[in-house]
Automatic annotation (TrEMBL), chain A:
This is ABC transporter domain-containing protein. Pfam families: ABC_tran, BCA_ABC_TP_C. It comes from Thermogemmatispora tikiterensis. GO terms for molecular function: ATP binding; ATP hydrolysis activity; L-isoleucine transmembrane transporter activity; L-phenylalanine transmembrane transporter activity; L-valine transmembrane transporter activity. The keyword Nucleotide-binding applies. One of its GO terms (cellular component) is plasma membrane. The lineage of its organism: Bacteria, Bacillati, Chloroflexota, Ktedonobacteria, Thermogemmatisporales. The keyword Cell membrane does not apply.
């Protein structure tokens, strides 16, 4: 567990940059959703992108995973340019993601969702897949085995054969993560992992995030509204407002900057505002 | 874990093991014990289709007892239903699983039949070679047409592919007209296929094989990718599914299977007609999967049964049917009934017949288990 601390970015330049975003600009018609954004996510860190609604956080995530084409700028994963690649190629390179609204494959079982998550790690072609024999069969058995291990690791093994549509929302959230993990990503993008999670489980979620990072050697880039989760897990955060970077650094420092407080929490006293904000968030969620 | 960071003072104490979401340590991959075969519900999935197959194998003997001299004639009708089941499966893979509302399958249905007739009857090529060439041509045509067709989606795809059917039907009619014939007779079929019983067993074997392969395909990486892009295209792409490639693959597989149904249909009727590539035929295909159940293997069979029985029952009526001042050709009446069935199915049981039979069962994968 202490090893993870040594890779923390503030401790020097020798750590490797996994994701590098430079000059990212996204325009939707006349609207500038993201303006000239630079981001560096180091290998093995937990990086959070925060900001008020409409700040462009999800747009940045969509640019990284390949669903939105930026107007200008560059995005590199371990030095490789991503912009020329489609979403599916980026997944194969090791970018996994979850969605704010789950986007699970609702007619499938939990296990099958994970197997799709592993799609880019599997090779079976059309003709191999027609019969229950041969290398495709072995590959499939191994994939099922691995998917079950991931479910066990997340404590979801008893749901493996349940239809996703029949499960409660909080559980679906976790299955979304399990599906992304099944692809064995290097970089995991989490879109609001705490949204819709009951208040009493938020602390457990923060614990989980750290555990995934530590035990799987993941790099996490998350969008999060819940400041408790952000402060508990993120090593660095970047605050966006109207598509521009407002501040970047350690959460404890950044969240005290007046500009951030004003943009994000309003003008009230910090703790009060935070409490108020959380209450309203959970009421809305 | 060292908490250097400031945890919100509000709930710091709760970062602990009483997490409702599990906290078992990871046994890193590879060295874990082997999965015990995976599926637990293998037996009902295997026995139901196996019993059905045995029943179909014994059917000719049963018909001998029931119908006596007309047994072969009745068997001939059942053969049609099995052929339609392949066409229904083809449409279902494309529309029910991969969610592409393509109406173009009837084009491949006609083209493969005409190719068979041309190669086998006119060019005197061996039957099986002609079948093989017809199927390959369908694959190639599917590849050529599928690319541009799939670049549009939804209603646009439906209309574009329906256009393909109408165009193909016109071209086939033109061929018939310029050759001075009503329809393309298959005059050089292998002698054995003239026997209703042999044809029945051939079609049964092919249908069983096709459904067997489809069953496994749908549980493979490829079938899952199709279902995934049906359930959520963005999530499928995020999981690494190449959307365009997999849609095109579904299109080509569907085209080849429809082609297979087309050559069998032509063999069954010893003729290829331009009406095989018509809007009426498209509606028949669509009715099969909607009435039977989209996204269900058993639904493909049930739909074929239903759609195959309608013309049989209507065949008992005089053609054209006279209702007072109205004179209805039976073919028109058939399509009209399909239309009504489509509407009724969509309104009252959108999951199709198969969903009615498997109440509360699994939606896609489980249900597909008993074709």
């Amino acid at each position: 567990m202490s090893a993870e601390r040594q890779t923390a970015p503030q401790e020097g330049r020798q750590c490797r940059t996994l994701l590098e975003v430079q000059g990212l600009t996204v325009r939707f018609g006349g609207l500038v959703a993201v303006a000239d954004l630079d981001l560096r996510v180091e290998e093995g860190e937990i990086f959070a992108l925060v900001g008020p609604n409409g700040a462009g956080k999800t747009t940045v995530l969509n640019c990284i995973s390949g669903f939105v084409r930026p107007s200008s700028g560059s995005i590199r994963l371990a030095g490789q340019d991503l912009l020329a690649l489609g979403a599916e190629r980026r997944a194969a390179l090791g970018i996994g993601r979850t969605f704010q609204n789950g986007q699970l494959f609702s007619s499938m079982t939990v296990l099958e969702n994970l197997l799709v998550g592993r799609h880019s790690r599997l090779r079976a072609g059309l003709f191999q897949s027609l019969l229950p024999i041969g290398p495709a069969r072995r590959e499939e058995a191994a994939a099922r085995q691995r998917a079950r291990e991931i479910l066990t690791w997340l404590g979801l093994e008893s749901y493996a054969d349940r239809l996703v549509a029949t499960l409660p929302a909080g559980l679906q959230k976790l299955i979304g993560v399990a599906r992304a993990l099944a692809g064995e990503p290097r970089l995991l993008l989490l879109d609001e992992p705490a949204a819709g999670v009951p208040l009493r489980e938020v602390a457990a979620l923060a614990d989980q995030l750290r555990r995934w990072k530590a035990e799987l050697g993941l790099t996490l880039l998350l969008i999060e509204h819940n400041m408790e989760v952000v402060q508990a897990v993120a090593q660095r955060i970047c605050v966006l407002n109207y598509g521009r970077k407002l501040a970047e650094g350690e959460p404890a420092t950044v969240l005290r900057e007046p500009a951030v407080l004003e943009a994000y929490l309003g003008r009230e006293e910090e703790i009060d505002a935070r409490e108020e904000w959380e209450v309203s968030d959970h009421a809305a969620g | 874990m060292a908490m250097k960071r400031i945890v919100s003072p509000l709930k710091r104490g709760q970062v602990s093991q009483d997490a409702p979401i599990g906290a078992t340590p990871l046994t890193t991959g590879g060295r874990a014990e082997r999965a015990s075969g995976g599926e637990r519900h293998v037996w009902p999935r295997v026995t139901a289709p196996l019993l059905g197959l045995i029943a179909l194998i014994l059917l000719p003997s049963l018909f001998d007892l029931l119908f006596g001299d007309s047994a072969d004639f009745q068997l001939h009708r059942v053969t049609l239903i099995l052929i339609l089941a392949i066409a229904a499966l083809a449409q279902n893979l494309l529309t029910g699983y991969a969610a592409q509302p393509s109406l173009g399958n009837a084009a491949f249905f006609g083209v493969s039949a005409y190719l068979l007739a041309w190669l086998n009857s006119d060019l005197q090529q061996p039957y099986w070679l002609a079948v093989l060439v017809a199927l390959l041509a369908c694959a190639l045509l599917g590849l050529i047409v599928g690319g541009p067709a799939l670049s549009v989606s939804g209603a646009h795809l439906a209309i574009a592919t329906l256009g393909l059917v109408v165009l193909t039907g016109s071209l086939l009619t033109l061929w018939d007209t310029s050759a001075g014939r009503q329809s393309y007779e298959l005059t050089a079929l292998p002698e054995a296929l003239g026997d209703d019983r042999v044809l029945y067993y051939l079609v049964l074997a092919l249908t069983a094989l096709v459904f067997f392969c489809a069953f496994h395909l749908l549980r493979s990486r490829i079938g899952r990718a199709w279902i995934a892009l049906r359930d959520s295209e963005v999530a499928a792409a995020a999981c690494g599914v190449a959307l365009t490639r997999y849609k095109l693959l579904a299109f080509v597989v569907s085209a080849v299977l429809t082609g297979l149904a087309g050559v069998l249909y032509a063999t069954w009727g010893t003729t290829a007609t331009a009406s095989m590539s018509s809007v009426d035929q498209t509606i028949a295909f669509l009715t099969m999967i909607v009435v039977g159940g989209a996204g269900s293997l058993s639904g493909s069979l049930l739909g074929a049964l239903f759609v195959g029985l309608v013309p049989l029952l209507l065949g008992e009526l005089p053609d054209p049917l006279t209702l007072g001042p109205l004179q209805l050709p039976i073919a028109t009446l058939t399509t009209g009934i399909y239309g009504v069935l489509l509407l009724l199915a969509l309104i009252f049981f959108p999951g199709g017949l198969s969903s009615v039979f498997s109440r509360g069962g699994r939606l896609v994968q489980g249900e597909g288990g008993k074709p």
